[in-house]
Write a structure and sequence with these properties.
With 468 residues, this protein is an alpha+beta fold. Strands 13, 14, 17, 20, 21, 22, 23 and 24 form an eight-stranded mixed β-sheet that branches. A six-stranded parallel β-sheet has the order 3-2-1-9-11-12, with helices on both faces. A five-stranded antiparallel β-sheet has the order 6-7-4-5-25, with no helix packed on it. β6 and β7 form a beta hairpin. The protein is elongated and about 85 Å long.
């Protein structure tokens, strides 16, 4: 989890058992259990996976209760560990991506997560097949219409507080709220209800990387028992639910899941992260109509005032025989202002976009054609097609930095403006059962609006602060 997340939570004295001893099954026993679990998954008709912080430790995100977990260190009066990469650049683990393949194969029916790192969504798990019980550090939600906004930056607050941004769904315009729960916040019914429904239907609930201490979430997997389902726990420490489980596996989650995927003969595809940005070009004639005053700005697709966390700086140069001065934009907002004679020949503005720490390449090159006498036209491409094509090129070439235009809006009323949305490949990560190969660190940072499917029961809201 984000180190900042723990610091944003309200203080409580008792965070449960921490610093528990890690247990490792002997290699032969571990392999036998992996084979048994694979058979259970093969026979399963309704597999549900329940995840905790342990599936994200291989992403460079500390857990809470392990020997070097956040709460373990805090309880011992020790300083928190340094993050190995920015939280917003964390990439899904082998386990995250394996779950995507299991879902696409029709084997996995639903994922329930206690994590707030957003990696299930970034990996590609469909929103309607995911309950994020404790929220998502990168998600804002409209309390009026229910639309969700998945960001490429960490939302600044926790505790379901209002943020600085507003809903853009139609005429809604209500202030958005963060989605991450504080200790005393109730589990939202739109997350809890479908989780309960799927656990009750499940014939196997597979618990991965969780100490199963936070109630009421930790009791969800047990709901399958009434219908004859089985609970399997994969964790490095003992949990309070071990005695109710049909099988407990003590081993690294990635190793267990990698072994299962190999036995199922399912390939784990590479993870490609794509980030979006807007270039906003505006031009207006000078009072004497001899010059064009023009500006170029790089902005977030989420909010024009928001930071672009994946961009460190921008070098600006110009094609052709123009004598315009080159520039380096090294702080937000990335704005360029120029004054050019109206009769100037068409030229390109060349942007060398230097990517931030955790990205898989140093920079991406963007060319923006400028022609004062020609009028550009609005256009909109199929976003999914553009993203698929970009991902394919990145994987085939084993490199990042490719970019492509998704849409362009031209505004001719008042100062002429062109707003262009571009997608940039910023990370690639490959997986197999023996190795994880990475170009940098991070997936799919887009400005999706996600509407939840209503499903399940209407029960009283439940509180997440109880610990066993």
């Amino acid at each position: 989890m984000s180190l900042g997340y723990a610091e944003k939570l309200s203080y409580i004295e008792d965070v449960g058992n921490v610093g528990m001893t890690e247990i490792f099954d002997p290699p032969r026993i571990l392999q036998e259990k992996i084979e048994r679990l694979t058979m259970m998954i093969r026979k399963s008709k309704h597999l549900v996976v329940f995840t905790g912080a342990g599936i994200s430790t291989s992403c460079g995100i500390p857990d809470f209760r392990g020997p070097t977990g956040i709460w373990t260190l805090q309880k011992g009066g020790n300083s928190l560990p340094e993050a190995s990469l920015p939280f917003h650049r964390a990439m899904p683990s082998m386990t995250h991506m394996a779950l995507v393949e299991l879902e696409r194969a029709g084997i996995l029916k639903f994922v329930i997560s206690q994590n707030i790192d957003g990696l299930h969504l970034r990996s590609g798990i469909p929103r309607e097949k995911l309950s994020e019980l404790h929220g998502n550090s990168f998600m804002e939600r409209c309390s009026s219409c229910g639309v969700e906004y998945f960001r490429d930056f960490e939302v600044e607050s926790v505790g379901l507080k209002e943020t600085s941004r507003r809903c853009s769904n139609g005429d809604c315009d209500v202030k958005l709220k963060d989605t991450v729960l504080d200790w005393e916040d109730a589990l939202p019914p739109e997350e809890m209800n479908p989780a309960e429904v799927h656990c009750e239907k499940a014939d196997v609930v597979l618990c991965l990387g969780t100490s199963l201490q936070i109630t009421p979430a930790c009791n969800l997997p047990l709901k399958c028992l009434r219908g004859g389902g089985k609970v399997v726990i994969v964790n490095l420490q003992k949990t309070p639910k071990d005695k109710k489980a049909s099988m407990v596996i003590h081993g690294f989650v990635d190793k267990v899941i990698g072994g299962i995927m190999e036995l199922l003969n399912l390939r784990i595809h590479p993870f490609v992260r794509i980030d979006l940005l807007q270039t906003i070009y505006t031009q207006a004639l000078s009072l004497d109509e001899r010059y064009v005053n023009w500006t170029l700005r790089l902005a977030s697709v989420h909010d024009k005032k928001a930071m672009l966390p994946f961009i460190k700086s921008v070098e600006v140069s110009f094609s052709g025989n123009h004598t315009m001065k080159e520039a380096v934009l090294d702080k937000h907002p990335f704005n360029l202002k120029r004054r050019t004679v109206l009769t100037a020949e068409p030229f390109d503005v060349v942007l060398k976009v230097h990517l931030s720490e955790g990205c898989g390449c140093a920079y991406s090159l963007i060319k923006i054609p400028i022609d004062f006498r020609a009028s550009a036209e609005s256009m909109k491409r199929d976003r999914d097609h553009v993203l698929r094509k970009l991902k394919g090129k990145a994987v085939k070439g084993s490199c990042c930095g490719q970019n492509s235009v998704i849409e362009r809006s031209v505004i001719v009323v008042g100062p002429k403006s062109e707003i262009t949305v571009r997608a940039i490949v910023t990370n690639i990560r490959w997986y197999d059962d023996k190795m994880v190969k990475t170009l940098g660190a991070g997936s799919f940072g887009n400005n999706c609006s996600l509407k939840r499917r209503k499903q399940g029961k209407n029960e009283n809201a439940q509180i997440r602060h109880k610990i066993r």
